[in-house]
Design a protein that fits this description.
It is a single chain. By secondary structure, this protein is mainly beta. It has one domain: Cyclophilin (Beta Barrel). Helix content is about 10%, strand content about 45%. It has 1 helix and 9 strands; from the N terminus they run ββαβββββββ. Strands 1-2-8-6-7-4-3-9 form an 8-stranded antiparallel β-barrel. The longest helix is centred in the N-terminal third of the chain and has 10 residues. It comes from Halorubrum trueperi.
Length: about 120
């Protein structure tokens, strides 16, 4: 069962919380709903959020579909494929991020041509 509804432009997605970074996840959950105009960096979108917490279990390489908090930029990131920092096809952040959720199906993001408005709320 999905926990979150994620809108990227006109695309409706769902995501499920992970247990990788419970304190960061709680900070993100407390701030919901979150929305913003996202910038694109390879197959990643990121947008500013009003959350300021330290990294927790942070790493640069993340799974496809990761929803992660980037503490350096106070931003939430959505990953669905390689970025300019990737080694091969793996998604890789510019610097370590804390994964808080995973998008259930990233296929709708593959046709995205640039940045987009993003909104995340509880399902």
């Amino acid at each position: 069962m999905s926990d979150l509804q994620v809108r990227v432009g006109d695309r409706e997605l769902t995501a499920t919380w992970t247990d990788d970074a419970p304190e960061v996840r709680e900070a993100i959950a407390s701030g919901l709903p979150l929305a913003g105009d996202a910038e694109r960096w390879g197959d990643e979108l990121y947008f500013d959020v009003p959350v300021d917490v330290p990294a927790e279990n942070a790493r640069a390489a993340v799974p496809v579909g990761a929803v992660a908090y980037w503490p350096r930029g106070n931003a939430l990131c959505l990953f669905w494929g390689p970025t300019p920092a990737s080694e091969g096809a793996e998604p890789r952040a510019a610097s370590p991020v804390s994964v808080v959720a995973e998008i259930d199906d990233v296929r709708p993001l593959r046709s995205l041509s640039g940045g987009a408005s993003v909104a995340i709320e509880r399902e």
